[in-house]
Each structure stands twice: as C-alpha cells, then as structure tokens.
Amino acid sequence: MRYRVFFCVLLLAFAQQAISQTPQLSEKSQISFLTCARGDNLLTAFGHSSFRVQDSTLGIDVVYNYGTYDFNRPNFILNFVKGRLIYSLSRSRFDRFLFAYEMERRWVKEQILNLNLEEKNKLFAFLEHNYLPQNRDYLYDPLLNNCSSIAGDILKQQFGDEIVFDGSYLDKQYTFRELVRQNLKTNSWSSFGIDVAFGSVVDRKATVKEHTFLPYYAMRQLNHTTKNGKPLVQRERTILDYEEFDVNSFFPLSPLFWFTLLFLFTATITYLDYKHGSRSRWLDFSLFFITGFIGVVLALIWFGADHTSTPNNFNLLWAFPFNFAIAFIYIFQSKLPDWFTKYLWIAIGLLLLTLIVWIFNIQSFSPLLILLLLTLALRYVFLLKFAKV
Q1: What is the DSSP string of 78-124?
Q2: Rounded to an integer, what distance in angstroms lies between the CA atom of residue 166 and that of residue 120?
Q3: 27, 117 in Cβ contact below 8 A?
C-alpha cells in the first residue's frame, strides 16, 4: 500500500513538472500584438489589446488576454466601487478569440514583433508563467494598468533599456481626460458620468508611455518603438477588416436633452412661484437631494476608495454633499430657518468657484455641466429672494 501511495505521489510530481515546463518555440514561431476595434457600448468603447503566440510546428496558436474579469468573483461590485477590481490573464485559442470580434463586426489588426528565437522563448515563458493560477490576477487600473498599457510594461520588463518608446508620432501630449474623451461622445451619459467621477488628477498630461492605456495609442506606439535601435514591429497586417463603429445616439435620451428640459422646467416653476409668492418644495427637495447624493458618492470614491482617477474632484463644489442633509431639513419645514440664507450664499459662492476652477484649468468639466449650473443658480437666487420676504 505504501509503495502504491509513493508511486502515485511521484507520478503527480512528474505530471506537475511536465505541465509547468513551457515548450520551446521553433524557428517558425511568431509573437504578435493584437489590437481590436472599439465597440458600441461603454465596456468596449476603448478597444482591446492582447498578445498572440503562434507556432505551426508545435501546433500552437493562442491569445494571452489581460482584459478578463469575473462578475462571479466575491464582492465584485464592492471592489469595483472601492477601486480594487481584480483582472486576470486568460489564455484561449486564437480562433475562439477571433470569433467574438467577427460576430461583433470589429476589426482586428496584428503587429508581428521583430524578435529572435531566444527572445520569443523568453517572452513566451513569461506569458506562460504569468498565466499560472497564482500569477494571473492583477490589480486593474483603467488609466494606469490595463490590458493595453501592460504590454509596454511587459516589454520593458523583459528587454529593459533595449526598448525605447519614441513619442514623436504624437501631435501633442494629451491629458488623461482628453484621451478618454476621444473615445466617447460628449453628449452621452457615459462621457458625462466619467467627467463627473474623475478628479483634477486626470487633467495632467500623460507621458508618452501613459498614452498606451488606450489600445489605439498602444498600436501606434509599437510602430514607433525600437529594440536595440531597430523597429520592434516587423510587419503589420489586418486580420478582420470592418468599418469603424460610429455610435449614433437618440437625442431625446441624451443628457443635453434632459438637462435642457430640466432648466426650462425649473425656470417655468420658478417664474410661477415668483408670481404666486410660493415655493415648490418638491422641486427644491429634488435638486438638493440629487446634487447632495452625487456629492456624497464623489466624496466616498475620493476619500474612501483606492481609485487613482477620482481624488481632488472639484465637482464637489456644485454637487455639495451637505445638500443631501439640507434636502430633508428643507422639505419638512414650512418656514425657512434663519441660517438658510447664509447656506444659499455659500452654495452660490461654490457655483462661482466652480467656474473659476474651470476658467483657470484647475479641472476640466463636462460642457453639459453649464446647464446644471444655470439650473442651480436660478433656483438658489430665487430661494434667496424668497427667504427675505
């Protein structure tokens, strides 16, 4: 019985060792970088990047994808809110990977890397080692550490100073916010929401390397990268050729439509209140509650989370967190308290401060915010007049 157990343990040890050993690529092997077109929703709006390893001699054709996440992972939503979202490296057959993009009619381009056999095996061994269960997870950051930017990190890690990123192809160095906006329509809820959530930290200019958090820039950067003074990309080809997605939004569902409607509605109600010497408490409650709730959320993801893109958020000036408490105090009192006038002056001052922060480029805001600022200013001024009556 002992011999049988010993033999099984020995067999398992040999099997584990055999699995852990990465096969050596042949001269016919290629390692390439794949760039996939952007899609028609927020999750796919920025495109995608992956590594591909193929060797016809060994029958290998696999894709290493650092953009994999699992909704079933414990506390997925909570970790997303906290900025502690875990992504993983996945490995799949190239045909399965390609099928998904063919179904979505998104183009896929391939850049074959100019590596010798030793370098290919070194990079292949790294990817295989990184794919081991204990190594494949990493802390995701949408701007600093994602499926696209990680490619440059890997190349630098494997080949050191031999890799040189030339940024001469850039018309200018953009800020992180400008780079994100290039992939989203201004008049969209996703663009507005991201602009509100991002703090002033994303209004700094990204370095040449940091531009590569966007797959399109990573692709262009590889074409302007050298290894030992020679182009890193040996050749480029298109695997799937489809037209670029052009997302046409339905205007009545857009934020511009609803913010315009809100301003006109608020102006109408305010005029009627002024004419009749009354105040529509339900409207004021709604404005205070919504802006206050947004402010509380922004404060939480600034001070209570690990996001690198949400600190120093001056949207808190108009989305003042104290509005949340004021909403409930205000709705249950028929007569405005004496201190409420001072609070309104503070609120109006914060709206003006928002404009100053915007004008002096301390933080850039969504252009759609102008309508919200006008709506709040109109109602605050009215309440200030009403409180004096």
Answers
A1: HHHHHT--EEEEEEEEHHHHHHHHHHTT--EEEEEE---HHHHHHHH
A2: 23
A3: yes
User: From CA 389, how far away is CA 252, in angstroms rounded?
Assistant: 39
Across the beta sheet with 60-68, what order do the strands follow? 137-139, 86-93, 60-68, 48-55, 30-36, 108-113, 233-240
Q: Which residue has the tokens 């390397």?
A: 209
* Helices of type H across 277-368: 281-303, 323-331, 340-359
DSSP string computed for 349-371? HHHHHHHHHHHTTSS---TTHHH
Dihedral sign from CA coordinates of 298, 299, 300, 303: positive
The vertex-337 CA angle with 333 and 340, nearest 5°, equals 115
Q: Edge-to-edge strands of the sheet including 225-227?
A: 163-165, 225-227, 230-231
Residue whose token pair is 């489809």? 242
Q: How far is CA 123 from CA 52, 130, 157, in A?
A: 11, 10, 10
CA end-to-end span of the chain:
97
Q: Which of 131, 148, 141 is nearest to 222 (CA)?
A: 148
Residue 319 in contact with residue 350, Cβ under 8 Å? no
The pTM score is 0.90
Single out the residue of 256, 275, 102 nearest to residue 186, CA to CA: 256
Q: Is the dihedral of CA 354, 360, 363, 367 positive or negative?
A: positive
**Amino acid letter, residue 114:** N
The mean-pLDDT minimum among 73-82, 126-135, 157-166 falls in 73-82
Residue 293 pLDDT > 70: yes
SS3 234: strand
CA dist 192 and 210 (Å) reads 23
Report the mean per-residue pLDDT for the chain. Answer: 91
Six token digits for residue 200: 């002033």
